[in-house]
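Revision sheet: structure tokens.
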Amino acid sequence: MRSLEDVIQAAGNPVTMLRNLQSGPNVYPGVPPEFTNWRDETQAWQKTCVLFNQSYHMADLAVEGPDALKLLSHLGVNSFAAFTVDKAKQFVPCSYDGYVIGDVILFYLDPNQFNLVGRIPVLNWIRFHAATGGYNVKVELDERSAARRDPLNRRSYRFQLQGPNALKVMEKMLGTRPPELRSAPDSSRLVPAWKTTTPRVPSRIGRRSSWR
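Predicted:
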């Protein structure tokens, strides 16, 4: 087995070695190591196209029921005025003293059906109020891969296609040009989505510029 000194000498210097590591600085359960390095990834989403696998590093929380929207709009500090089915937005709850707990992405899937994706503190805050606030809702947590015994078995899988050639890749993959999705207005950053079904795989596809 080679020593660390052997690896450094083979690379030429520590900087070259670290910049070209085949595994990232954090090998995450369920996520393959980098194909090359972060510089290639950055150039890809700036100049061509890159496919991000976002299926394993965040937790999901499904919220369903007649009071689902009432619960979420009560806990979130940002407006729900223009929030409708097939849109998504940033969800930001605060504690009783007004301190921000965190933020996640909230997807409006169907009437009375939502999905939230992000870090566990926000999702636990929603679960607590769903259990204690008298709301007519059902919640189901799908933990991130690092916190479960079956790291690859998720309820849903999420990918992000980014770069100037993203629509060209979509068109080649689907065999037809996808519909134009306008970027969200600056006031609310809502994300229109369209649905497609490949064999046995129902999907939702949306476009975003940034979350607000």
